[in-house]
UniProtKB/TrEMBL annotation:
Protein name: ABC transporter substrate-binding protein
InterPro entries given in the database record: Bact_solute-bd_prot1, SBP
Region named Disordered: 27-48
Record SUPFAM superfamilies: Periplasmic binding protein-like II
Species name: Paenibacillus hodogayensis
Amino acid sequence: MKTSHTLASAAVAALMVLAAGCTGGQSASTNGQTDKQDGHTAKANPEPVKLTLQPVGAGYLYEEDFQMMVAEPLKKKYPHITVEYVMPSKGTMIEDLVAAKTVPDILLYGIGNYTQYRDLGILTDITPTLTKMKIDTSRFKPWVLDNIKVDGKLYSLPYAMNTNAIYYNLDLFDKFGVAYPKDGMSWDDIIEVTKRLSRTDNGTAYKGFMYLNSYWVGYQLSLPFTDAAKKKSAINSDGWSRVFQMMKTIDTIPGNERGSPVADFYDKRILAMVGAYNLVPTLKQDKYQTLRWDVAGYPSFKEKPNIAPPVDLHQVTISNSTKHPEEAMLVVDLLTSEEVQLISARRTGRASPLANKKIEQELGAEMPLIKGKNVTSFFASQPAPNVVFANEDIAVQKSIDKFYKDYSSGSIDVNVLMQKIEEDANQAISVIKSK
């Protein structure tokens, strides 16, 4: 999954068992000694510490969410730590801050930003700090940390996931008497439903299904865009050939010709289903409150049932230049604690990377927009393993966008498509390598 984007109720609230290392209040020692609490070593009468935090984009942590998920919990648990929110904008983009040697203490970013942050030289393996501070990472889903490790090193902890699902328009299914999509459907199933929903009625052309972009399905099989060792396109493969052929099957269903997934689903309301990551932040807008929608599990390949595209794991870490690594890590630990993750799930609709099923069930519990929705469908499939993102991947994606329409229109066959993508992308990659 690439740049971020974007992207998942039972009553549990105050009775939830809080994560070890993340929940207790800080006690002061009267004899000047330190004491163990929640797995951390709490200093008596700690000196005030001021830190800075920056998300790679506002959508990773809106300022109002920062207050709810960082500032307010800190006041209760670690009142000696205050954090300033730094919005990325002209003059305060991460590259600007690196140049000015004012890198924030805490960084929030997505999988697609890893190589940028790595190349800026601001990341550090946080494993030694986690070990030193006895921070328990067993609270995360088993596959989550493996998906963000690079060469066995852990540079961050995840605090949110853009889960994948089918969003569907209830009115269109009702209008045409078609059963709602359900969890566990295969791509073949979706293609058959799409055929039934792609039709013209009273002069309006309705479409059945669209995936989000022209390489989205490739994520699902964890297909690489580039050969990391050779720094060349890896698109000319049996796996990508299969993906392109399936995409064409969907896009050439009569009446389902590809348009704009966003405009057709949200605004025109002529698209019955869209396969996407978390659309809740968009659906929160007032103009979409009359759209009757629900969700079902993302479709999968038959040989890999219930495997969805990789999730965009939103990550939080400490910079390697912070002067307060332990205090910064306390903030990271608090943001990823069960206590704060419950707040996040209930109030912001962010899917949690933690293994706690009760947090999954509470997704959107305090959001009228999500009330009554099939929130368990956000977690119906296990994400495919992530492919480590490389800067060169963008060149391949642009080449796919450039030539795919020639293939879907029938102008070229799939072998010529992959050849054109490979040649075009390799030229672009050679320019990147020369810089």
